[in-house]
Amino acid sequence: MRRAGKVTFRQYRWVTEVGAPGKGYTQNQAVPFPAASIAPTSPAPAVGQCVFDPDAHSSSAPVTLTFDNSASTLPVPFTVTGRDDLSRTVAAGQTETVSTSVGPAGATFTVLADGAQLASHTVPGVSCYAPDWTVKASATSAVLDRTVRLTGRLTNSSNESMQVSMVTPYGTAGAPVTVEPGATATFTQDTGKSEVPAGVVELRQSRTVDGKEYTSTATAGYEAARYVPVVVAPVVGAPTVGACWFEDNDQRSYQPVTFVYDNTASTQAVTFHIEGSAAVVRDSTRTVQPGTSIQVKAPSAGEGGATYRVVTDAGTSWTFQVAGKSCLPAWQYGQFYVRGDRVVSHGTNYVATISHLSFFTPHTLLGSATWDAE
Questions:
Q1: pLDDT (tens digit per residue) in 322-351
Q2: The overall pTM is greater than 0.90
Q3: DSSP states of 305-347 as a string?
Q4: φ and ψ at 102, to 5 degrees?
Q5: Domain boundary at 108, 130, 152, which?
Q6: What is the pLDDT of residues 180-201, one digit of tens each?
Q7: What whole-number distance in Å separates Cα of residue 304 and Cα of residue 323?
Q8: Do 151 and 259 fall within a single domain?
Q9: Which CATH number belongs to the domain containing residue 260 in this structure?
């Protein structure tokens, strides 16, 4: 700063007159001057609110630098080291501002006035990133080549890409992959085991924004799985033959027959049926689940016996013979019989040749007039 004052101008003149000795003359002239000062300042910068730019994938905040020349009586050039775009010459008594910004790394602004360092302002880095971890995660277990494989899936429902990896109780499923918004990533992990209990996989997500890594983890459960060797071992044993019964309408004896379709030793379903007419096949067809067995009624066996062939869709078959059996009613004395009625007497089957009231046993001479032995 320079104080107000004055300067004196001393004037001198030497005069020589004709016929006289020379003589010097002097005069002082005072000239006042005002006070003057050069006092620039640069106060701390103003930092605005942080803003995250999703396109640039970075945060920033506006910074305002003030070049204060209000205390000066002369203009002063202000500069910022390395930033020619921020240079300003500020008139005496004036203040100007310049705008810039600061990012995640922060910045230092060294301000010079008329070439001399005036201030150094360090502005810390800013970050206002708020991660969105909206995802959908799932996991499954399945047997492949006799071992259990785990499969995890993650759908990125956010508006940003992310790095994703899957970690299981049996290791990490490869390197992380980039999953774009709306995309789904699939991970597989071979456990090397033939049986695994139910468990959980971790789908680990990460992003690096503003120089900082952000992480999140989504979990998904999978069911227990076990390799079961394929066994197809259906069995059909000898049928169960029930008590003989006599059908009055057609005068014939029949025996009920029941088969057991046994699939208890198999690990997959098997379909059984009894060969015969379309109706027999339809009525006897059953699909038996692994580890189970069921009973199925077959067509009854007549007096002449019956042959049954049971087949499966596994290519196996069984053939069984059921011997015939007669269960005719015994001849009754004084009973009225219609032609065609059948009876048993003395170990022989007989059929009535005429309708009659019977008083003679069929095996006698008189009885033979109304009965024929079969």
A1: 998 888 788 999 999 999 898 888 878 889
A2: no
A3: BEEEEEEETTS-EEEEEE-----PPBP-TT-EE-TT-EEEETT
A4: -130, 140
A5: 130
A6: 999 999 999 999 999 999 999 9
A7: 7
A8: no
A9: 2.60.40
